C-alpha cells in the first residue's frame, strides 16, 4: 500500500471508529514501514557525528549541533514551537594528545625495557605539570583496597585501577555500572593517600588498544590529581609486568577546566489536541565526548527522537497529548541540560506523563525499561501487557527498570520514566572512544530503534495511563 | 561463586530435591556464567572460518571441518559416542574468478563507456563458453514478468533480475525468502525464453560492492544457462543506465559440476539416563559457501552446538534424555546430510523429541521459533510459557514459526523443530560473501547464542514435553 493510501485508510479507520485494536496495530505497522523505508535518521546522524563530529559540552561543535537540530525541528510542519532552552554548563578542554610510557626491568643490572601506552584524560581531569608525572605503579582492583594499602604504599605513586567489566552480566549496562566507580571516584580516593595520579582500566569488555574516556569527579576538600584511562590491552600488559617487575610510568596531559558557559537544550513541541497538559517527552543528548563522533552516544538517541517527529508528520498524525522532542545538553559531564529542563518544567507546574530517553546506542531495540514513582510505575507494568500486544510483532518488550540520566530529574512529576533498551552487546566496544563514529552504527538497527520509540509514543498518546 | 562451588550447590539442590523452579533458574544462570566467561566457541569458530576457511560441500576444507569437529567431540568426556555419518553430496567447484563488464553509449556515435562489475557465480551454475557471453541486458523484477515479455524480448539476452529485498520486513529472513526466488529459479525460467545467461541482484538490503552467491537450481528438461549474482551497487548502476541506454554485458565464468562424492555428518551423543529414547538434537551445518569463511553461515551454528556440549560437561550435567550434537553436511546446495541423517534415524525408529538448529548467524539471540506436527507444536506453545519464565531474565522468547533446513526432514517423527533466532539486522550484510569471516562475528553475541541454546536444551531435558 502506498503511503497516501495508508493515510486515507487510517483516516477512514478513525472516522468510522473501527475497532481501536486494529487501528493501533495498523498504525504501528505504518510507523515501521515508513521509518525503515524512508526514515531520515541515518542522514541526520551522519551530519551530527561525521560532519560536525565530537560535541563536548561548551565546545563550538556542541553549539553547531544545537543549531543543526533546532533547524531540523523548525523545518518540520508538525512542530508547533521550537526553543533553545539556556542552561549553564561546565567547559573542559582536552588540550594536546596525552603521552604515556611505561618502563620496567632490573634496576641492579640497569637493563630497562619501555613501551608506549594508549591513554586518554578522563573528563574534568586536571593536567600534569609540564614535566609530566613519573612514578611507580600500584595496581588495585577496588576503591576499598586503597584504605588497606594506605599512605605507606600509595604515597607519590600512580594508582592503577584494573578491575575489569564483568562479562557475565547479561545487560552490559549493569556490568558498566559495577565497574565505573573506579573511573568516577578513583582520583580523589587515591589522592587522599598521597597518590600523584590515577590510571584507570577502560570500562569495556573488549580487549583492544582504545582508551575510553568518561566523566570523573573530584571530591570536595581533596587535592586534585590527574586522572587518565588506559586501554584494556595495555592494562593487561602492565598487570602482567607487575607480577615480575616494578613498573614506572610517565604520564603527560594538558586539559583545562574553563569558566562555565551558557549552552542550550533544544525543545520541539507538538501541542496535544485533547490533553495538552499531559506531556510525552522523547529525547537524547546532544553533547558527546570529544574522541569520536558521538554516534552511538548519543547522536543515535537524538536522531531517534527527531525521527519520532518526522514519522508522525509523514503519517499525518495529530496527537491527543503534547509531545516534546528534547535534545539535552551536557549529559556526559554535569547534567546541566537535564536539570535546567526539569527546573523550568517544575516551575511551570507541568506534568510529564511519560518521558522516554534513548541513550544506550543505535543498536537493534529489544524493548523498553521503565521506572518512576511506584504509584504510577507499578500500575503501568500491569497496563504494559496491553501495549506489548502491539509491540510483540516487532519483538519488543516492556520491563521494569530504566529511564535516563537526562529525564530522571523529572521524577518528582510522578510520570513514567522510560529508557529504550537496544541490544547492549557491542555498546561498550565504542563507548567514549575514537571508534564511536557513524560507520559503526548500522542503518537498519538505528531505524528499528526510532520505529520502536515512535510506536511507544503513539500508544501512550492514544491510550494514556490507567488512572 | 566459583565454578566448583556452583557444581556442589547444584548437586546439593538435586539431592535435596529443593524447589525445581529455583534449581532451573540457578542452572540456567550457571550456563550463562560459564559460557560468557569460559566458553571456547570463539576459538573453535576462528579455527573453522579463519584457519580452515570456506567449506564448500565436497571440498578438502569441508573434510577438514569434519575431522576438526569430530576430534573436538571425541575430546569431550561427556560424549558417549561420536560418529562420522556418510552422505552422498554434490560437488561443484567455482573455477577462476568471474569476469564481468558492462558497456553502454550511443551506437550511432560509437562513443561507448564501459565498467567492470562485481559478480560471482551462483552455486550449481554451469560455465560460459571460453569466449564468455556477450549480450544486451533486459531488467525484470519478477519471474512472472518473463512470460509477459516472452521470446520476442528475451531471446539471446542476459536477463537481469533486480527485485530488491524489502527493507520493511521486521524479520530479514522473511524479506530474504521473498526475494530469493529470482536467484534459485531465475536461470531455468529465463532459459525457457531463450536467454543466454542470468544476472541476479544480490539478496541483501545493503548497498555495497559485494556479490552474494547462493544456491540456484536448474529445472529438468530446460537448457542450463550460466547464472551469476551481481552486487547491489552495480545492480543499481545498470538499472539507472538502462533508463537511458542499451547496456551490453560481458560475462565469463568457469565453474564445474563434478561427480558426487561421499562426505559426512558429524554426530556426537550423550546417552540419556532416564529417557534415552527421547532425543534432543542441537546442530548447525559444517559446509559453507567458498567466498568467505562461513563464519556466520554456519560456523556459528556449529560452534553453538559444540558449546552446548562443552558447557554441560563443565557443569557436570547428566542428562535424562539423549542429547545429540549434529554437524550437518551440505545444507547450502543439496541437503545431502540432513536427508541422510533423517533417513538413518527413521530406519532405526528413533524419536527426536526436539531438534534445535542454529543457522541464522552468530548475533545476539532474541529467542527461538518453533514448529512441527500441529499435535505437538501447539501443545508446546502453551507449555512454552513455563519455559519462558526461565528465559525471561536473558531477554529470550519462544514464538511460533521456525526450524531449520537440516532438521526439517525429521518432521515425520512428530517432535518439535526449533530454530535459534538471533537478531537478523546484519545477517544479510555478510551472508554468502567474502565478508562472512570470523572478525565479523562478535564474541559476546556468539556466546550469548550458545548459552541460549544450552538453556533450552537443559529445560527440554529436565521438563520434557507435556503429553
Oligomer: homodimer
Shape of chain A: elongated
The Cα radius of gyration of chain A reads 24 Å
Q: What is the strand arrangement across the widest sheet of chain A?
A: 1-10-12-11-13-16-14-15
Continuous helix count of chain A = 13
Order of helices and strands of chain A: HHHHEEEEEHEHHEEHEEEHEHEEHEEHH
- The figure for the number of domains of chain A is 2
Low-confidence parts of chain A lasting 5 or more residues at pLDDT below 50? none
Q: Which range best describes the helical content of chain A: under 10%, 10-25%, 25-40%, 40-55%, 55-70% or over 70%?
A: 25-40%
What is the CATH top level name of the largest domain in chain A? Alpha Beta
Give the structural class of chain A: alpha/beta
Give the distance, in angstroms, between the N- and C-terminal Cα atoms of chain A.
Answer: 37 Å
Averaged pLDDT of chain A, please? Answer: 95
CATH architecture of the largest domain in chain A: 3-Layer(aba) Sandwich
Q: CATH superfamily membership of the largest domain in chain A, which one?
A: Zn peptidases
Using a beta-carbon cutoff below 8 angstroms, give the protein chain pair with the largest interface and the number of residues from each chain: A-B, 24 and 23 residues
Could you please say which CATH topology of the largest domain in chain A applies here? Aminopeptidase
Strand tally of chain A is: 16
Amino acid at each position: 500500500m502506498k503511503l497516501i493510501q495508508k493515510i486515507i485508510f487510517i483516516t477512514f479507520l478513525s472516522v468510522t471508529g473501527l475497532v481501536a485494536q486494529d487501528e493501533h496495530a495498523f498504525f504501528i505497522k505504518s510507523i515501521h514501514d515508513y521509518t525503515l523505508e524512508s526514515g531520515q535518521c541515518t542522514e541526520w546522524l551522519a551530519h551530527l557525528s561525521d560532519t560536525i563530529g565530537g560535541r563536548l559540552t561548551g565546545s563550538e561543535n556542541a553549539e553547531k549541533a544545537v543549531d543543526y537540530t533546532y533547524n531540523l525541528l523548525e523545518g518540520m510542519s508538525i512542530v508547533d514551537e521550537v526553543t533553545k532552552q539556556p542552561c549553564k554548563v561546565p567547559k573542559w578542554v582536552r588540550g594536546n594528545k596525552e603521552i604515556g610510557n611505561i618502563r620496567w626491568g632490573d634496576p641492579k643490572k640497569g637493563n630497562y625495557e619501555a613501551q608506549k601506552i594508549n591513554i586518554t584524560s578522563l573528563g574534568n581531569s586536571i593536567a600534569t605539570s609540564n614535566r609530566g608525572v613519573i612514578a611507580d605503579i600500584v595496581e588495585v582492583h577496588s576503591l576499598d583496597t586503597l584504605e588497606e594499602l594506605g599512605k605507606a604504599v600509595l604515597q607519590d605513586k600512580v594508582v592503577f585501577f584494573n578491575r575489569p567489566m564483568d562479562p557475565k552480566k547479561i545487560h552490559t549496562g549493569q556490568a558498566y555500572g559495577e565497574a565505573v566507580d573506579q573511573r568516577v571516584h578513583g582520583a580523589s580516593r587515591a589522592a587522599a593517600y598521597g597518590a600523584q595520579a590515577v590510571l584507570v582500566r577502560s570500562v569495556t569488555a573488549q580487549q583492544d588498544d582504545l582508551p575510553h574516556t568518561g566523566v570523573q569527579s573530584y571530591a570536595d576538600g581533596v587535592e586534585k590529581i590527574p586522572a587518565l584511562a588506559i586501554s584494556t590491552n595495555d592494562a593487561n600488559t602492565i598487570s602482567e609486568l607487575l607480577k615480575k617487575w616494578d613498573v614506572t610510568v610517565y604520564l603527560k596531559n594538558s586539559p583545562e577546566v574553563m569558566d562555565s558557559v551558557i549552552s542550550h537544550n533544544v525543545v520541539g513541541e507538538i501541542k496535544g489536541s485533547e490533553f495538552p497538559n499531559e506531556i510525552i517527552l522523547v529525547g537524547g543528548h546532544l553533547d558527546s565526548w570529544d574522541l569520536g563522533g558521538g554516534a552511538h552516544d548519543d547522536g543515535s538517541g537524538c536522531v531517534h527522537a527527531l525521527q519520532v517527529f518526522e514519522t508522525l508528520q509523514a503519517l499525518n498524525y495529530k496527537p491527543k497529548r503534547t509531545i516534546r522532542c528534547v535534545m539535552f545538553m551536557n549529559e556526559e559531564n554535569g547534567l546541566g541540560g537535564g536539570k535546567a529542563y526539569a527546573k523550568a518544567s517544575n516551575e511551570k507546574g507541568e506534568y510529564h506523563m511519560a518521558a522516554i530517553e534513548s541513550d544506550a546506542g543505535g543498536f537493534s531495540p529489544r524493548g523498553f525499561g521503565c521506572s518512576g514513582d511506584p504509584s504510577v510505575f507499578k500500575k503501568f507494568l500491569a497496563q504494559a501487557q496491553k501495549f506489548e500486544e502491539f509491540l510483540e510483532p516487532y519483538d519488543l518488550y516492556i520491563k521494569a527498570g530504566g529511564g535516563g540520566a537526562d529525564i530522571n530529574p523529572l521524577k518528582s512529576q510522578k510520570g513514567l520514566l522510560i529508557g529504550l533498551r537496544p541490544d547492549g552487546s557491542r555498546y561498550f566496544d565504542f563507548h567514549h572512544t575514537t571508534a564511536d563514529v557513524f560507520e559503526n552504527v548500522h542503518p537498519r538497527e538505528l531505524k528499528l530503534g526510532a520505529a520502536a520509540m515512535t510506536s511507544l509514543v503513539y500508544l501512550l498518546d492514544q491510550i494514556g495511563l490507567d488512572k
